[in-house]
Design brief:
The complex is a heterodimer of chains A (251) and B (477). Chain A has ten helices and twelve strands. Chain A is α/β, with parallel strands linked by helices. In chain A, a hairpin with a 4-residue loop joins strand 7 and strand 8. Chain B is rod-shaped and about 155 Å long. The chains are: A alpha/beta (251), B alpha+beta (477).
Amino acid sequence: MPSFTDIQGHSAFGLATEAQPDRVTMRLLIIEDDRDAAEYLVKAFREVGHVADAAHDGEEGLAMALDGQYDVLIVDRMLPKRDGLSVIGTLRGKNIETPALILSALGQVDDRVKGLRAGGDDYLPKPYSFSELLARVEVLARRRGSRSEETVLRVGDLELDRLSHQVRRGNEEIVLQPREFRLLEYLMQHAGQVVTRTMLLENVWDYHFDPQTNVIDVHISRLRSKIDKNFSQPLLHTVRGAGYMIRDGAR
Amino acid sequence: MTALGKLFRTTTFKLTLVYLTVFALFAAFLLGYFALNTRRLITEQITDTVNAEITGLAEQYRLGGIRRLVIVVDARARRPGSSLYLVTTYQGETLAGNVTSLPPGTLDNAGWIETTYRRLDESETSERGEQRGEHHALVRVFQLPGGFRLLVGRDLEERERLHSIVLSAGRWSVVIVVVLGLAGGLFVTRRVLRRVDAMTETTRSIMAGDLGERLPIAGSGDEIDRLAENLNEMLERIEALMNGLKEVSDNIAHDLKTPLTRLRNRAEQALRTSGSESEYRSALETIIEESDGLIATFNALLMIARAESGQARDNMSEFDAAEIAQDVCELYEPLADEKGIDLKVEAGAPAPVKANRELVSQALANLVDNAIKYSEPKEGAEAPAPEIVVSARAEGERVLLTVADRGPGIPAADRGRVVERFVRLERSRSQPGSGLGLSLAAAVARLHGGELILEDNQPGLKSIIALPRGGPVQNAG
């Protein structure tokens, strides 16, 4: 068994931590029957400053989710005693709307659809990278107080008007292609949070497959050249090993 | 016994038995009906004859009284093959006639009666057989004035002979029907059984692992032949699938083991030689990269397997392939631009398809990705910017999604082969990618009942995903 203690010290996740000093502590429940995997996740989340508990079967997970005040649930699909989808379904039946991310070895499109229909909020196929999981969990945790209702999004001096489709930085108007606009909109909705390439591909393009070449990077660099190029203070940052983040660096 | 038991248990034999029973019953019914009618006819004839005689005798009696009647009866009774006559007094003494040994009381009542009798002329000659001399007759008795009685009748021998003929005919025909039916049934059953046995044997050897075997076909074109032909076609398909599976596992073994080995080597090397933290770190990062590549390959494989098994068929929707072409190009345009490639879309008119949108997008994305990989301008060579044209158009009953590049192309001889899983031509081994792009596009096309066509773009490669044309698409705007 590979020991993760080696990795821990160096921490690929540490990079994400550095880039995000304003991280809010989350309470997480991990329902996963593979004890090694659960323990790995608990340690990894604690390392980046969150509080994480683990349950090893569906019943235990359901009981803990009912009792505890968790910000996000991470639920494996195939669990002993009670299936992961049923755990989520039961919670939703009791009007408990804690965001839930489903982890599954079944990564195909219709499995994902099934998971989301059962009340899951996001779906991540195994094997996943921790940075991807972390980014998605943080997005879920903040979704409740999210800015999806706001019509004007602001990061620093960058301003995006969702109604008139106008983007300004300072006094300068920035002209974006429709897709670039949606890309920026998504990034700004999650300002201060890491957004992975897969999340962008899923939410901006609605594609759930992996284009072999990293096309997203090129789109980002185009967007960056439009919003950051002539300004001293960059807003769109690359988070190494994880994805991208839009953030007001002056704060 | 077992062989015979098997014979008796066959459907054919059971059918034979049922058929035989039905046929025998039918034959018996027919014979019975025939016998009954004939018997009635004969009885009618006898009655008519007797009535005619009586009319004649009554005329004689009217003309000459009892004496004349006795004379006439006497004369008629002596004629060979005559009817039966008897004239008696009130006390029962015979005045004339050829009948004796009537059961007592026969003459008491006027009218028709069936009775036993003996002929006078044979009663003396055959003393020894009381029984043998007795015959049956249908007679009519008349009361004459003065207590005289007249009996006229006909022998029933003819009717009885017919009865026995019918009886024996019935018996024989049943025997013959049963014997012939059983023999025929056995013959047919054995023939069928032999063929079924041969099929069973072949099936067993196929189950034992010899997938190359085929069921025997007699060539008669009957239902067993048709069954065998269908089963053979099924076997053909199974064999093809099995071969495909074998090939896949070979390919998986090859193309997954290679990067796995590389991954392991890196880890080992890092353990053996690295000293500093940064060295470990970079080794681990390479390892993560390698494993991501492995995961991508694995996902592509699963996707192909899914497309080929037809599971993804549930997720079909109707959409415009032209939109997909535009979306995919929009995704790749910045990448192409960065590499100095001119990526063009020609997708104006709607090209409706009913398909799995996600899979078709992915297949097209793979083709565009490939085209970009192979179109990169060579360093130094000052050629015009290479162009890639992506188009979607409806053509007859098909919708063609075409990606045409100006890259090195694929030699005609290799075009069939590259569509297979994992095949990458030797010279492209150095390029990144899992080598599954074309295979996936082909699998997706096949899933939708279409095909992947590779053509020469003179120069370059033209890859076409041909899908069956769908119904009209409502244009949202």
